[in-house]
């Protein structure tokens, strides 16, 4: 019987549609486990630009920091894409990750038995995969200086930079997680070309000395992208930098059948941020067809990593699994024989299952 305050950021595009379904499940968790959740609605991204003229305000940061966790929808869309970089919705998301000190982004990809035929890959390739991408989230080329356009606009540049401390802390976290799983860690870099990757690799090797029980291997990112579709079962935990992790986790999502299935937890600071890995999906916003499962699985991660409510997290995960087992599917994961449902129906079914599983 706990009392928790949650920051809720619905966001842009499909964000509000799927966050609503996440909160339905959370209300069922509240009833079943006799918790009280108070919600503080905050705005980041396009919805903040429309209200306050900027994608993130200090007041929003302060509000979030006063709560127990941030439940985050998605940001962005064509309406704001021509703004200067620091005023784009995406700058708001990067800003809140940085402000929270959320340096580690955990993106688990597991295949539900029921969805084995939904993937574009062969059944034998994906059956039983269970991998975790640990993406460094507050450094690398996303944040490196200098960046920008030359004055004559004939050049543009970004800088990929990592400090010893940044690599060390993400490597340690990844080793700690690997130790609790199948004890295999793959560090992905581009050390054959980039100095920053060579530096990354050397530090990962140094950190590995404290983890003799974890098997470490290194892979260049181009090979890793190929191996993920060739033989994804070889992976347990993948640790990598910000931009490589962004790309590889979208790729990993298709092993599970749809990007609408992949959740994430961004941790390392005082308040964690929990969001799907997908974006605001402007192409389907407002149509009521978005898959809310990535958002609902992000809720499970919020319960587990943000509030340390392990039973409650498991209950939400089991509810999702049960509804899939019953054959209900949003259009992105549906095959012909499935019971097709829209976003709200899927959310209702999962919320009901939370009270029953
Ligand atoms: P996207 O992830 O929004 O969409 C890619 C494709 O996946 C689209 O066809 C979309 O319809 C589909 N898709 C995504 N989520 C889905 C869901 N839950 N159910 C069913 N289908 C789903 O990526 P994009 O189109 O490259 O980007 C759109 C906007 O989102 C951009 O402004 C981008 O910057 C932003 N974005 C935000 C986040 C975030 O808020 N964390 C993440 C990625 C992209
Ligand atoms: C993600 C997104 C973001 C990223 C964008 C929207 C800033 O693609 O969360 O994966 O690149 O980190
Ligand atoms: Mn991404």
Automatic annotation (TrEMBL):
Quaternary assembly: Homodimer.
Name of the protein this chain belongs to: 3-isopropylmalate dehydrogenase
HAMAP family, per database record: LeuB_type1
Cofactor binding remark: Binds 1 Mg(2+) or Mn(2+) ion per subunit.
Pathway the protein acts in: Amino-acid biosynthesis; L-leucine biosynthesis; L-leucine from 3-methyl-2-oxobutanoate: step 3/4
GO cellular component assignments: cytosol
Lineage of source species: Bacteria, Pseudomonadati, Campylobacterota, Desulfurellia, Desulfurellales
GO molecular function term, any single one: NAD binding
Source organism: Desulfurella amilsii
Keyword Magnesium: yes
